[in-house]
Structures are given as C-alpha cells and as structure tokens.
C-alpha cells in the first residue's frame, strides 16, 4: 500500500511538472493585462489572434501542409509497413529508426541541399511544395512504425485465406488486411498530422517567402517579446492537439 501511494505521488509530480506550465499558459491567455499580473478575465487576446491577418494566413498554410503531408505519408507509410511485414527487411527497419533519431537540423540541411540541387534544373523556387515534400519525408517513419506494430499482431492466415479463394495480394490487402488495421492507420495519420503541423526547424529551412507556417510566425513573434496573443494561439494549439492525441490513442487501442 505504501509503495502504491508513493508511486502515485511520484506520477502526480511528473504530470504536474509536464503540464503545469501549459496550464499557466492557458490561464494567462485569458488575462486582461498583457503582463504576467492577473487583472481580470478577458478574451481580447483571442480576438486579436483571429483578427491578425499574418496569423490567419500562416494557419491556413499550416493546415494545408499538414493535411497534404499527413495524407501522403499515411498512404506511403502504410504500404511500406505492409511490404516490410510481408517481406522481412531488418535493414529497412533500422533505417526508419535512424531517421527518427537524426537531429532535425541535419535533416533540414540535407533536404534543403536536395531541393536546391533538384529544383535548380527545374527552375522552381522553394515554397509550399518543398515544405510538403519535407514533411512527408520525416512523417513516413512515424506512420510506418505505428502501422508495423499493428501488423505484428495481425493474423497472416486471414490474408492467405483470401488469396486461396482467388484474390491477388493487392485485393487481399484492400479487402481483408486494410479494414483490420484501419484504426492503426487512422492513428498514424493523426500522429503525422500533429508532427507536421508542429514542425519548425525543418520547415524554416525549406520554406519559401510565401509559405510561412504558424510555428514560424509564433517563433518570430516570441523573439520580439512575449505577447499575450502568442499565449492565446498556443493555448488553442495545445487544446486541439490534446484532443487529436487522445483520439489517436483510442484508435490504437482498438
């Protein structure tokens, strides 16, 4: 009993350490004063955020990039996981984990060099397309790992039975395997959406002048001084992503 209470107290301290700063951030986003002195409840900073054209434009860019990157990476990552599940390739799995532990600054520089080299011949500048391609590049690993974890628990005999009844590999995957792993695919897609929307380092490397994302604008605003508008925008992001993460966890449990 004592050990159980001690473990619960320790867990509460860890959660408080992780989430207390976020709760303070959300609380001061409703502060009428622009400084960290509570003077009353107000929604003025949320109104200011909605009326800021730069924030709205960057939000639209972030949503477009995140949806496009999440959709493409979910399709590619799911097919990659399925292929690795059918054909064992340990070196490919190692390469996926290597991409996760590679520092973002290194990935950003490598992608920038790739885009500059390739697009010099195509006469294309950096822009929304390069950001989407970069986000797809690092999101595929997250999708593949999540879907691969679900496929390890999947009964291979179900797909083999479908092929015994006349279906080819592709039809067996679409009609039998994919519906069974659909919750994991959806969870992986939501994870890719969150990772793409939240990225700053790689995005700042490969973005053009007309493709600034919300994290880039928030970082620029924060460098000029802490603004309550940043608190309001950050609070909305925390709440939205918290809901998405909870949905993703529920889907992975199915």
Quick recap:
This protein has 254 residues and is an all-alpha fold. Helix content is 81%, strand content 0%. The protein has a single domain (53-253), classed as Orthogonal Bundle (MetI-like fold).
How is the topology of this model organized?
Blueprint: H1 2-28, H2 44-51, H3 53-86, H4 90-101, H5 104-122, H6 128-151, H7 156-164, H8 169-198, H9 201-206, H10 214-223, H11 228-253
Helix pairs in contact: 1-11, 2-11, 3-6, 3-8, 3-10, 4-6, 6-8, 7-8, 8-11
What can you tell me about this protein's structure?
The chain is mainly alpha-helical and 254 residues long. The protein is built from eleven helices and no strands. The protein has helices at residues 2-28, 44-51, 53-86, 90-101, 104-122, 128-151, 156-164, 169-198, 201-206, 214-223, 228-253. The radius of gyration is 22 Å and the shape is globular. The model has no long low-confidence stretch (mean pLDDT 84).
Characteristics:
254 residues; globular; 11 helices; MetI-like fold; 0% strand; mainly alpha
Label the structural class. mainly alpha
Distance between the termini: 32 Å
- Seen as an oligomer or otherwise, the chain set is single chain
CATH topology: MetI-like fold
Give the class-level CATH name. Answer: Mainly Alpha
% residues in beta strands: under 5%
**Major sheet attributes:** none
CATH architecture: Orthogonal Bundle
